[in-house]
Amino acid sequence: MDKIYAWLTKKFEHPLSPLFFFFGALLILLAMSNKFDVPFLKNFAIDPGFRSTAIFIGVACFVLSIILYYRPPKHSPVTNLASLPPEYKDSMDKRFGELSDNQSSLLHFLQQQTDAHKGILQSRVEREFSYLSKSEVFYRLEHLRLLGFLENQKLEGGAGTLYKVRKSYKGNFSRRPDYGREKLKSVT
What we know:
The chain has 9 helices and 5 strands, in the order ααββααααβααββα. The protein is mainly α.
């Protein structure tokens, strides 16, 4: 049963579409025939007075299945905040306060560099933070992006990835009293 459900959701994206299709076909088939021999229901038939109603409902089910198939439900961003990790629900200030020294340094460096440029290549960040491995720099940058501090843009042809501080965070960053002090490491 799980395999059938997995196939249905993969194929149709909305499992009600094939269900309405099957129900509509069954109603139309029953309405058009005099009797229908089903192994567990002998001589199953629709009353002649309800045949037009059965055809109408069958066609409506067909139409509804087509609408559901071609207009699947829109996937909205996570609406259940209970499923998010706690740090994603916190304010930017609280997230900033819980950053590690390396992440604070990266964020400070990107803030300074992206004021003058549209973004900074990941390879340049890796050179600047050569005491960290390339994989750790990538991990830290992506974590900062997921926390909402950075945004990234993949360059065409695999030329690299540009990172920059989000506009929504840039204003808050420069107003912070501890900006560029105590917690942030020097990047020289």
